[in-house]
Amino acid sequence: MERLVREVAEKRGAKSAHYMHMTLTSVFKSLPKNLGVGNPARDAGTVIELPRNTTLKGWPLAAKQIPPFLDAVDRYPGRIATKLAIKLLMLTFVRKRELSSATWDEVDLERGEWVIPAERMKMRKPQIVPLSSQAVECFKNLKPLSFGSRYVFPNLGDPTLVGWTIVSGSVGFVPNPGSWTAFEGTRTQRGVN
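RE: above sequence
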């Protein structure tokens, strides 16, 4: 386990190794005690040292925290597009930049899929995101809110530009369980599979 943490730290950095360690610790902690496995990941985190100026972004939501979180999103009195953006982050598990840059030509509501082109992906490979019926409904509700823009989340002052703040700047509003941020969406997904 320690070797794995060290390898990730060398290849991807100390923060990535730390987040991987947190995930592994949670996985082993969730195993039934009668299996007698213990938690081999518990001590592996001591092999990495985070830089002093590192701010960790919180923990992924546990499965039981997701319903209260979504209830808080529903109660949010702000813009509908912001609520739908947060729901889409939870339903699709994409990065917030991928969502905020989404264009309507990438989204096929009939087929229930969203194809994110390679140039917008972190690993530079296209990604096909299957859309649940709830995600399709979110996109349908967003269509009239985009005012004919090619972007799903347009800039309200200039619809030819992306509206970054709808997704990026407005996700810290929810009185949430724990300290969830939009970044944790992808890690929450790994914990709920």
